[in-house]
Amino acid sequence: MSNGITFRFKLPLGTFTLDAAGEIPTQGVTALFGRSGCGKTSLLRCIAGLEQAADAFLSISGECWHDSANGFYLPPHKRAIGYVFQEGMLFPHLRVRENLNFGYRRTPSSQRTGDFDRVVHLLGLDSLLDRSPAQLSGGEKQRVAIGRALLNHPRLLLMDEPMAALDRGHKKEILPYLERLHGESNIPIIYVTHDLNELSRIADHLVLIEQGTILAAGPLTELLARVDLPIARDEEAGALFDTRIIHHDETYHLTRLAFSGGELTVGWIDRPAGEMVRIRIHAKDVSLALDPPGLSSILNVLPVTVVEMAAHGRGRMIVKLDLGGTPLLARITQKSQANLDLKPGMRVYAQIKSVALTL
Amino acid sequence: MGPNDLAALWVTLRLALTSTLLLLLLGTPVAWWLARSHSRVRTLVETVIALPLVLPPTVLGFYLLIALSPNGLLGASWIALGGSGLAFTFTGLVIGSVLYSMPFVVQPLQNAFAAIDRRTLEAASTLRASPLDCFFSVIIPLARPGLITAATLGFAHTLGEFGVVLMIGGNIPGKTQVLSIAIYDHVESLEYGQAHLLSAGLLLFSFLILFLVYRMNGTSLLRRETR
Asked: Relative to the CA of A140, which of A80, A172, B165, B195 has its CA 20 to 30 Å away?
């Protein structure tokens, strides 16, 4: 018996077939990532039971929810899940409070944890309770939808691009709540997205989907640092670092971060020393040099080892580097690779032009 | 108002109420199916239900009369089940009214159901609502304006029915004589005073219920229900 979420689904989807099998950990946020129309939402709907694949198996911590071989299918209303749709899908005839209570009232009292106030507080819904959905902004609707799903006492929270329908401003409004949710709840979350930035901010695990099949699955930092996956070809490709704030330099308004492979100096981060910060270093912001540069405007120059390289696009290369055990990606031209005569195992210097915070 | 007129009023109200109730009971599942199904039979069913909109009531009445007669399809089955014939009875009138007013009930319901986003229902199912629970706690409240419209149109249309009733009900005072036919009788007998009284009463009543429904729904009765 597996303790994770084990699944296998075969479902025809127009021009191709969703044919996915795998295991998702029951801890943290797992992102289903892929382009629009790759089948990631269908996979999520299969897990929810909203789509009934003819060939299907799904078990959650050893409890079977779907097993087509034995003719067993648990309909969605009997699965303890929370599902957040792209556009909220609040009940328009009910006020926010009643929307939040919809699943709560239908949960057997033995399973209720009586956390209405905590959820309302977590998502900042106090002032919205008596409004009707029509009076809410897109971001507020999504927060209510997340609250409604949480109050259904789910064993599994499923989110289908919950921020896709929001503009940048509202995305910024939702993200901190999602991060808080990630930190405070121990409900596993499966999160569908096609946005690398969103993914980097909240996911721990990644399932890469292409044309209905799973290309790769594993810890996010590991997969983002692989050069053989299509994700490395993305303009926004880059490696993730979980770092700790060790020092603030008030004179120059800079912050010093430490991670397993070394230290980095970045622009001021308005958080106390000791806190963990996840940062992303885009491959396009890393350049390589054979010798340590002399005086330079670039603050972060770190010794690294070339691990592997892959060509991609016209005249471009993606290089995976090892930074004291932590992977780093660099995007360079093929001409540069030839000039430097880069080979796996070589010691070079990585100059990091900028660091993206995923705050 | 004479005793016959009062009896006609009573028959009319009873007929309209019974028919409306039956129409809602039968029309709701049909409308739901029409709104959600992709079956090829759908168009056929839609057409058959809409027929009373275009057929002269006498045509419908004529075929009903044949079907309801003791040798007819419906009449014979009714007698086999222990009934005592359908033609010229109140039960026969109810059957006729239900068929005749069906499109007025099914169409607003169908529009109201079709306007409900499938994902709203999926959301309810992910929140532990069984299909039946979902029907009463989500579908019915969301389709409320359509339901009110359907009930009103069904009721008002049955109230004003003439041709079908005349063909299958005969004109038996106290049994099958309804207001519209009582008015016709008064006019034929040149009793314009009584005809006026009944006509004005029907006019006022119809005006009032339609006015109330328009106010409640805040929308035109035959417009697509998009709420």
From this structure: A80
